[in-house]
Amino acid sequence: MINQSKRHLLKTGGLTALAMGLGGSAMFVAAKTGKQPISASPDKIPDQRKLGNLTVSSLGLGCQGLGQNMYGVPQPSRQQAVRLVHQAFDHGVTFFDTAEAYGPFESERVVGEGVKSFRDQIIIATKFGWDIDQQTGQRTGKLNSRPEHIKNVVDAMLQRLQTDRIDLLYQHRVDPNVPIEEVAGTIQDLMKQGKVLNWGLSEAGEKTIRQAHAVQPLTAVQSEYSLFFRGREKDVIPLCEELGIGFVPWSPLAMGALAGYVDENSRFAADPRQDLRGIIPRFTPEAMQQNVKLIRLVEKWAKRKLCTPAQFSLAWLMEQKAFIVPIPGTTKARHLLDNLGADDVKFSAEELRQFHQELDVIDIVGLRLPEAILNFSEAK
Ligand SMILES: NC(=O)c1ccc[n+]([C@@H]2O[C@H](COP(=O)([O-])OP(=O)(O)OC[C@H]3O[C@@H](n4cnc5c(N)ncnc54)[C@H](OP(=O)(O)O)[C@@H]3O)[C@@H](O)[C@H]2O)c1
To answer: Which branch of life, at top level (predicted)?
Structure first.
């Protein structure tokens, strides 16, 4: 639970929060509905949810964009990024998602610096699995989950995160060259040393999840999941339910496309180092002629629910299962506050039925990632 002094800070800082919250998103709702958006609440503190045995805020903060350029927004300075981490905690976020690959390293450094004054009150999740030289940051572009490499990476992570333990450590992508049982065994060794407290897998298939869980129980699985990509609804999410594993949707706003500022006229930088969406098939101008139908549907329902499109999209994810905790990424305080407002958006059974009737007839065209990157997600 968030402590009383934080609550006080929240209330006394409420006007500032309100002012920040009434940014683009609030104007979106006001313009479209003439009414106040849900994000205007200065008392907003997210509820808590369980991911396996971990208790976290119902929405986490995705920290990738705090360590590298992502979606056409320049990476913030270290100082700005640390400030955003503080603001997230001040508004009740206790779940911070990072990875060695983000930067590389800079996102972990931001999180380490950002959370150090409240380290014991939050959960840090990070990820290993890419072949990255821990001294130089040089990437080979390949995977590497060999035991010695994982152990070296974890030691370097602990330094970057300024901590003595990682609350939740994911394998970022399944390494076909290292049996998952061997990876699980390595994690067990790290747990015995107290360096890792819980573990998870990212973008893993059902077979791998079962095999890994049999050796060392998993706390969470992280995979892409949003109104734009619902591919895990029939396999991994039911399996998580069966095994008591939490599920963390990445890109819950479809890389910003569900937040109200992207449509069929949007054009993204061709260089993925400036904007990853420039090389993603579902965001080509041709694909967006079709995919904008989903964006319009979300806008329509956001208007009906008196919330912003981002809030609607995140609330819909949280509505699917109690063990789902989205980690929207942002570089801006006003978007952070907007996203936290999703916690207050609730659906009746009839609303969900009607929404799904409209949703299910929209086909999303184009791959969710370029084929070369998607190949790393193909593990069964
Ligand atoms: N496991 C994996 O393989 C994997 C892969 C990708 C990501 N992740 C994790 O998932 C996190 C989130 O994913 P993501 O960042 O790719 O995608 P996302 O959360 O779906 O979208 C982020 C984008 O949405 C914009 N945005 C956020 N809130 C907004 C709001 N309320 N109004 C308008 N725009 C808003 C952000 O822009 P601003 O910065 O301008 O707010 C940013 O461009 C990452 O940070 C990372 O921690 C994991």
So the answer is: Bacteria
Please report, for residues 79, 276, 282, 371, the alpha-carbon distance to residue 268 in angstroms, rounded to integers and kept in the order given: 27, 8, 12, 18
pLDDT band per the 50, 70, 90 thresholds, residue 313: very high
The full set of domains in the chain, from first to last, is 48-254+317-344 (3.20.20.100)
Tokens representing 220 are 């969470």
User: Is the pLDDT score of 34 beyond 60?
Assistant: no
pLDDT tens track for 341-355:
999 999 999 999 999
Counting from 1 in the atom list of ligand 1, the atom nearest the Cα of 252 is 20
Cα-to-centroid distance, 361 and ligand 1 (Å): 26
Question: Is 151's pLDDT higher than 50?
Answer: yes
369, 371, 375, 380: CA torsion to nearest 10: 70
For residues 84 and 326, give the distance between their C-alpha atoms in angstroms, rounded to a whole number: 18
Is 39 touching ligand 1 by the criterion CB < 6 Å?
no
CA 219, CA 256: separation in Å to the nearest integer? Answer: 27
pLDDT tens column, 46-91 = 899 999 999 999 999 999 999 999 999 889 999 999 999 999 999 9
Ligand 1 site, residue 203, Cβ cutoff 6 A: yes
Phi, psi angle pair for 225, to nearest 5°? -160, 125
Rg (C-alpha) for the chain, rounded Å, is 20
Element (H, E) at 350: helix 349-359
**Among the listed residues 226, 306, 300, the one whose alpha carbon sits nearest the alpha carbon of residue 39:** 306
313 CB less than 6 Å from ligand 1? no
pLDDT of residue 11: 31
Ligand 1 test: best mutation among 64, 108, 123, 174, most atoms within 8 Å of CB?
64
Catalytic residues: 102
310 lines ligand 1 (CB under 6 A): yes
Q: What is the distance, to the nearest Å, from the Cα of residue 57 to the centroid of all Cα atoms in its chain? A: 13
Give the distance (Å) from ligand 1 centre to CA of residue 344.
Answer: 20
User: Taking the model in full, what pTM does it have?
Assistant: 0.92
**Distances, alpha carbon 108 to alpha carbons 6, 101, 263, in Å:** 24, 9, 32
Give the residue among 8, 23, 13 at the shortest CA–CA distance from 333.
23
196 beta partners: 166
